[in-house]
Amino acid sequence: MTIVSDDPAWWPTINANRNFSYFIVAAFMGITYDWALTLGQEVELIWRQHWSLMTVLYLGVRYLGILSATMYMLGSVPTILLSDKVSLISYMVWEWTIVVASVMLSVIIITRLYAMYQRSRKILIFLVVTVLAVNIFDRVVTVMVTMQVSGEEFILSGAYLCEVDYPEDIPLLMSATWILSTAWEVLTLCLAIWIAVKHFREMRQHSEGGILEDCFMVLMKTHVVYFASFVAVSCFELIADFTPILLTSNSLGAQIVVGFIQISQVVQVFVLGPRLILGLREYRAKLVADADKPIVMTSIAFQERVHISTGSGV
Q: In this predicted structure, what is the pLDDT of residue 46?
């Protein structure tokens, strides 16, 4: 159903949606700028190298992000005319892209930890079982949202808006998914810190270090930055979920909070996610460039115990 009105009482809603659309456009521009900024590295370290699981995951997260941000922007800008069904479809594409990208990021994190723990089968089984439990619950909630969500089209003083409505119990379930996801991220960070500290102590005791120590530093640096962004997104999401008025308020403060949720989520999933792979490949490429002969990494296996090359690995 389409509601058409020129009533001035709708102007606060129009202004609020216009302000929110600025954040959506900013998120799209942010991910596009990051893609352009790293395109040279991507071509050299991803496209021109031997393809592996990490290659597929990198390209999936990167280009799904651009696609979903484009669709969400088209459905959120008030000057772009879309029907309520098309707007709802663009919203669903955004939601399910986040779901698929989150699964891909979980695989990336598990692969990194599996390598850091020297291919321990116990740690691999533990991580797989844990992430399956978290993701199954998350997928069930996403399916429930998809089945129960509805959209309504408004044409207000020439501005095109689409309102997405949820059943009352959905926000609570969405909060539960964020709590479980936060627990998963905290767990993976603790495991990464534990094994890194253990290796650093062992290398100090045996007066070793060098390549292996630097590699762990690169892994920890990218992981901590990624985790910090996830904490920021989770805080914003939980505030919004437990304060429903933020999602319906037309105040500038509420729109800023909701807008920062969108930007933070895009940065965490579609910018820092691919950099988990790109940063490590860049480091390994520098090792090859600086070495006079192939260097062997026997203490940490990212895919297989072979001479370092820029074409395989996380």
A: 92
Report the distance separating Cα 304 and Cα 314, nearest Å. 11
What are the phi and psi torsion angles at 245 (to 5°)?
-60, -25
Instruction: Give CA–CA dist 214/282, Å, rounded.
Output: 13
User: For residue 174, with 0-12 CB atoms within 10 Å meaning exposed, 13-18 middle and 19 or more buried, which class applies?
Assistant: buried
Close Cβ partners of 53 (under 8 Å, ≥ 6 residues apart)? 107, 111
Sign of CA dihedral 125, 131, 134, 138: negative
What 3-state DSSP class applies to 99?
helix
Give the integer Cα–Cα distance in Å for 110 and 184: 11
Q: What is the distance between the alpha carbons of residues 54 and 154, in angstroms, rounded to a whole number?
A: 43
Helix axes of 170-205 and 84-116: crossing angle, nearest 10 degrees: 20
The predicted structure's pLDDT at residue 131:
93
Bridge pairing between strands 2-5 and 159-165: unpaired
Q: Check residue 296 and give its pLDDT.
A: 47
Residue 312 pLDDT: 42
Residues in the chain: 314
Which residue numbers in the chain have pLDDT < 50? 295-313
Count H helices and E strands in the chain, helices first.
Answer: 10, 3
Structure tokens at 309: 């090359």
Q: 223 with 193: CB under 8 angstroms? A: no
